[in-house]
Amino acid sequence: MKKIVGQIPNFITSLNLLSGSLAVIFAIDGHLIWAGVFICFAAVFDFMDGLAARLLHAYSEVGKQLDSLADVVSFGLAPGAILFTLFEFSLFDKNLPVYEISGQWYEWLILFSAFLIPVFGAIRLARFNSSFSEEPFFRGLPIPANALLWASLGLILQFPGNEKLFQLVFTTKNLLFLGVFTSGMMVINLPMFSLKVKSLSVKENWYRYLFLLISGAMIIIFKAYGLAFSIFLYIILNVIFYLAKVDL
Length: 248
Known about the structure:
This protein has helices spanning 2-6, 8-28, 32-56, 61-92, 105-112, 116-130, 143-155, 163-169, 172-187, 202-222, 224-243; strands at 137-139, 191-193. It is mainly alpha-helical and 248 residues long. A two-stranded antiparallel sheet has the order 1-2. Helix 2 packs antiparallel against helix 3, helix 4 packs antiparallel against helix 5 (105-112) and helix 4 runs antiparallel to helix 9 (172-187).
């Protein structure tokens, strides 16, 4: 019985991996809304497996490695696939099978720049797994946060009348900049606060409560747009805190 209970966190991690795999398939097939939905499911399972491991005291090296492998797929490859398809829409106005793409060399370079996300995400996870630091904050943008940003860009497409927005915001240049920027943010050495708390003290967690309050309001008001805005808010707040030398 103890062995079965000990595998519950790994089972939840497997659901994370399954969700990420489905997100990749939907993204490559051009169904970005469903890709975004399954990345969100993966994020929920990613939270739940850690919670289950703490509650059940079911920690293991296998679980740690499985979690990272699942995250590479769900929060690395899946958002990379979303960006790849967004590039297809911006360059060719449609989603094409890879073998049917006929473009210039620079268009291929742009397309495959989408996979900087899984590469840099894997580097970040490898650094995290090999680090023995006891710092209470992250170094660089957490890979699930980056994935949720790209998931939100897929979810935004569910709202009617977004054709003008797509043409204005989802341009090749904007997507290329955002892809390179977020990939770099994952491996940068910038301290970024964690949402894990040791106590509910307002004095110790004021910046977490501030972020959650503003983010919650934006998501309620702007829905998928608010999710994207909240990730940008997270980055901006951490830059401000770093420059102001706020202790995280």
